[in-house]
Design the sequence.
């Protein structure tokens, strides 16, 4: 009888430890989905497609070039945009030029944080980032320069952006979308300039709920000063919510050569959906 009791006690301990491990894993997964709080300096453990390993520092190496001399932005990157607060990208001493309607909307969103569409597995928009990696696809195949350039995001069920590099203009009429309509051009083969319009007004710039309208116009200037660093300076213009255009700058870090974008199905363990007792804010719209 004593041996059976001891065995039962050991089994209970093992079961309890297993439940604790499972619960910890679920909590970490949920934190990753919310942006990776409590993870490594580059995001939550497992968010980089390599178990949270920190990539080697390659800032001393020169940036690679395409055959025509244009800087190559190819690679797997982390960063490049705001997560918690877009204002952290402003020059020191500057503040967001918020108009009263923007302040009022942010005050409302501060009381309704779970309304953030990104927490409902919607795309994060521009220039918002996530702790998950993204990948530039700029390869030239059968032409002197690419007619299209793509940015692939691991987060939120494989979002992607298409940038038209063939000199076309924005259409006169656009259907509002999460990533808008983007055209690109090169300045001196060192800076990729992406001009985007045609956004919807659903995504938030950050977790604080910094807003924008369908009048949003962004101009991104991507540069690669060295092998391991990618810099994105974004000028934001939206006369509905801001008194003047403003520019924010963010830096990305190159990930390891063996790391790749992984499958990310946002619906799994989504604590902000029905599993968390919340109603979808887009129903009925």
Sequence:
């Amino acid at each position: 009888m004593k041996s059976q009791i001891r065995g039962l006690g050991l089994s209970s301990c093992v079961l309890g430890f297993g439940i604790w491990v499972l619960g910890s894993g679920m909590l970490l997964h949920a934190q990753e989905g919310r942006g990776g709080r409590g993870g490594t300096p580059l995001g939550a453990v497992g968010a980089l497609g390599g178990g949270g390993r920190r990539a080697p520092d390659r800032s001393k190496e020169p940036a690679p070039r395409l055959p025509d001399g244009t800087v190559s932005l190819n690679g797997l990157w982390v960063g490049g945009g705001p997560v918690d607060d877009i204002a952290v990208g402003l020059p020191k001493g500057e503040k967001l030029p918020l108009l009263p309607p923007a302040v009022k909307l942010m005050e409302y969103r501060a009381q309704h944080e779970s309304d953030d569409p990104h927490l409902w597995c919607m795309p994060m928009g521009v220039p918002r980032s996530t702790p998950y990696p993204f990948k530039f696809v700029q390869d030239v195949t059968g032409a002197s320069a690419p007619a299209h350039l793509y940015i692939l995001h691991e987060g939120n069920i494989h979002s992607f952006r298409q940038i038209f590099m063939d000199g076309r203009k924005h259409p006169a009429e656009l259907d509002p979308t999460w990533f808008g309509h983007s055209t690109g051009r090169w300045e001196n083969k060192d800076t990729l300039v992406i001009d985007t319009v045609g956004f919807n007004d659903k995504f938030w710039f950050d977790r604080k709920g910094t807003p924008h309208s369908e009048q949003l116009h962004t101009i991104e200037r991507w540069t690669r000063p060295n092998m391991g660093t990618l810099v994105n300076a974004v000028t934001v213009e939206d006369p509905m919510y801001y008194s003047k255009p403003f520019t924010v700058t963010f830096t990305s870090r190159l990930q390891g050569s063996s790391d790749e974008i992984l499958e990310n199905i946002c619906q799994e363990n989504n604590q902000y959906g029905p599993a968390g007792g919340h109603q979808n804010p887009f129903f009925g719209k």
